[in-house]
Every structure is written in structure tokens, then in C-alpha cells.
From TrEMBL:
It comes from the Eukaryota. Transmembrane segments: none annotated. Pfam families: PQ-loop. This is Solute carrier family 66 member 3. The keyword Heme does not apply. The gene is SLC66A3.
């Protein structure tokens, strides 16, 4: 019974996360405008998700404890591309995506790097 309830909670969390940004993405696509989206806040959210996901992977936590973060990251990347598409230049997104992809590898070079990034991320939330 306990395992079934835990499984239900895990899968419902994944379902909610999968649908979390869909209304925002569909509203942006319907309006054909990125007005109201903040690039700095989207990048901060994306960085937070990336650091947390990398921390969880680095320390070998079970995938069910962080499986929603790749879904959230993918939705934020879609919103990032929408911002640049509707502002007229998708090519400007290239440096941002390159930094996000390279940071995935940089965070895991040394243990202190991922720990420091996670510590700084927790400090921003307080």
C-alpha cells in the first residue's frame, strides 16, 4: 500500500511538471509574442534547475527523486527559444544554450564546483 501511494505521488508529480508550463507556452504561441516573459528570470530558473539536476546526478540519487527536472528544463528551453523567435532573432539564443550545455559538464569537473553551485543556489532562495 505504501509503495503504491509513493508511486502514485511520483507519477502525479511528473504529470504536473509535464503540464506546468504548457499553458504559458501555448499562450505565447497563440499571442505570437514574448511580451511578459522575462529573460533574466527564465535564465535564473533554468540555471537553478540545471544546478539541482546536476547535483542529484553527481551524488547518485535515485532518478525518481529528480525526474521532473529534465521536463522542466525542456519547457524552459522552449520558452527561451520562443522569446528569441518572437523578438526576431533565434540565433541570439545560441550563446545561452551553449553556456547551459557547457555548464552541465563544468559542474561535474570537481566535487567542490557542484557543491559551491548548490550552496549559491540555496543562498538565492533565502
Amino acid at each position: 500500500m505504501e509503495a503504491a501511494l509513493l508511486g502514485l505521488c511520483n507519477w502525479s508529480t511528473l504529470g504536473v511538471c509535464a503540464a506546468l508550463k504548457l499553458p504559458q507556452i501555448s499562450a505565447v504561441l497563440a499571442a505570437r509574442s514574448a511580451r511578459g516573459l522575462s529573460l533574466p528570470s527564465l535564465l535564473l530558473e533554468l540555471a537553478g534547475f540545471l544546478v539541482f539536476l546536476r547535483y542529484q546526478c553527481y551524488y547518485g540519487y535515485p532518478p525518481l527523486t529528480y525526474l521532473e527536472f529534465p521536463i522542466l528544463i525542456a519547457q524552459d528551453v522552449i520558452l527561451l527559444l520562443c522569446i528569441f523567435h518572437f523578438n526576431g532573432n533565434v540565433k541570439q539564443a545560441t550563446p545561452y544554450i551553449a553556456v547551459l550545455v557547457s555548464s552541465w559538464f563544468v559542474l561535474a569537473l570537481q566535487k567542490w564546483i557542484v557543491d559551491l553551485a548548490m550552496e549559491n543556489q540555496a543562498g538565492r532562495l533565502q
